[in-house]
Amino acid sequence: MKKNFLFNLLLSISNILFPIISFPYAARVLGPEGIGKVQFIFSYAQYFALFAALGIPIYGVKEIAKHHQNDHQTKSIFLSLSSIYFIASAVATLLYVLSVLYIPYFSAHKTMYLIAGALVLLSFTYTDWYYAGKADFKTIALRSIIVKAIAIILLYLWVKTPNDLIQYLVILIFTILGNQVYSFLVIYFKHQPHTYTLEFKKHFKPLLYIFGATAASSIYTLWDTILLGFLANPMAVGFYTASIKFIKLLLPFVTSVGTVFIPILSYKFAQNKIEEIQKILVHSFYFLVLLTVPMAFGTYLLAPEIMTIFSGEAFNKSILPMQIMSVLPLFIGFGHFFAFQILIPAEKNKEVFIAMLVGLFISAAFNVMFTPHYQEKGAAVATIITELSVSLIYLYYTNKVYQFKYPWVFFGQSILAACTFIPIVFGVRMLTDNTFVISLIAVVGCSLTYILLQLYFFNNKFLITYVNFKQIITNLK
Q1: What does the pLDDT look like over 293-346, one tens digit per residue?
Q2: Separation of CA 188 from chain center
Q3: CA dihedral in degrees (428, 254, 218, 165; nearest 10)?
Q4: Spatial contact of 244 and 43, defined as CB atoms under 8 Å apart
Q5: How confident is the model over 124-177, as pLDDT tens digits?
Q6: Nearest-CA neighbor of 315 among 378, 224, 242?
Q7: Is the distance from CB of 421 to CB of 448 less than 8 angstroms?
Q8: In angstroms, rounded to a whole number, what is the distance separating the alpha carbons of residues 195 and 265?
Q9: Angle (deg, nearest 10), helices 469-476 and 274-301
Q10: Are 167 and 32 in contact, with CB atoms under 8 Å apart?
Q11: Cα–Cα distance for residue pair 437/93, rounded to 1 Å
Q12: Which pTM was predicted?
């Protein structure tokens, strides 16, 4: 448990450091319009890749975790799901290429769209679900870090002028496919395909629900960028990308603990060990609140400084969208908690599908309503409304099926502790106008204040538990 948490935390840190190192450089070289063009193309290809996944990355973790003690069974599951994934990828690639070739909107940058098609064609090589089901987070983390390090080197070598859009696109594609292809080949040849029977029918029905949920989710998570590109312009996409890019940097920290718990929870739900599940959920809830509340407050208050450091003054229009979406880690964190730590491990795939479907309609309605008039700001508002709605539906279904208890008092205490960030940030701004100094002093001051209030004012002994891994493991046994 301790090693898995540490490696997943290491992966989360690398996922945060990579954009922090790469995006500010790319944003300053390519500008808002260049970033917007590449991000739109990249998102459009990812849209088809997510459809090709058919929910396998979620379903696969659960299935591998349930049978992790049976090596023959896990290998059979891997080969069966990978074969389904391959067929779906081929179909999605065909549809993607046809859309690029025959829709006039894509003609101006047809070559870039076709290059991005590699994301769809090779999407079946995604195998992190297998390693996660096996609780092998070491492999996921180390390979991902190596690929990201190579990508950073390529970025500084290849992207030199605003015209280097193709080079930047290729690097983004490499950050995804570099690890995927290698990992897939390692597992595939290790499992000797000819010795296992493929079981398609067995996985079809549960995949159908999760695919529906994934399809709906993929629409409303990529819908914002794609609609913004169609209804507004590349410049608006660039501003929106800069604002949400930083927000998404925080999400791996939010979901890191939950990701480690998913295979464990799947196994315990299969054995109906409700008391043990309750214990794990309480730990996960505390960790989620402990991080997301100060993240939301800090992002909102320091948005001007963050955007200046992260993207440059050319992206000043990204400040307001960032402030609007500052609560995203909180909403998405709770959504991930209820969906991926309770509903999916408990085989409540239908409920997840319904929530995602509702999210799809809400996202479509508010994006069409707000995006044409308010552009990046409208997309930000639509995103917040959608994520909040989906998380509340998850909570409804969770409470309908189970009677789990959550320490909601701690949530209120965390909000009160984070309110002290307001005078700290404004006070620092009165002392200096240096962006870096403001950010540094505010982050350190707010963090220390938050921790001290939790420990000594609210007497939050659970915080001490999270810096003592041995005690975590003892509590979960």
Answers
A1: 999 999 999 999 999 888 888 888 889 999 999 999 999 999 989 988 888 888
A2: 26
A3: 50
A4: no
A5: 998 888 877 776 667 777 888 888 899 999 999 999 999 999 999 999 999 989
A6: 242
A7: no
A8: 30
A9: 140
A10: no
A11: 48
A12: 0.71
Phi-psi region of 474 (alpha: psi -120 to 50; beta: other; left: phi over 0): alpha
Radius of gyration of the chain measured on its C-alpha atoms? 22
Report the number of secondary-structure helices (H) and strands (E) in the chain. 20, 0
- In angstroms, the CA 27 to CA 242 distance is 8
Structure-token match 């000797």, residue found: 192
State whether the Cα torsion 247-248-253-259 is positive or negative. Answer: positive
And the tokens for 420? 């002290």
Angle (CA) 326-298-429 rounded to 5° is 125
Question: Would you list the DSSP string of 53-100?
Answer: HTTHHHHHHHHHHHTTT-HHHHHHHHHHHHHHHHHHHHHHHHHHHHHH
**Residue that has been written with the tokens 């701004």 in this structure:** 429
The tokens for 298 are 């800090």
Cα–Cα dist 29/327, whole Å: 29
Tokens of 170: 């290729």
Question: Whose CA is closest to 30, among 242, 304, 211, 301?
Answer: 242
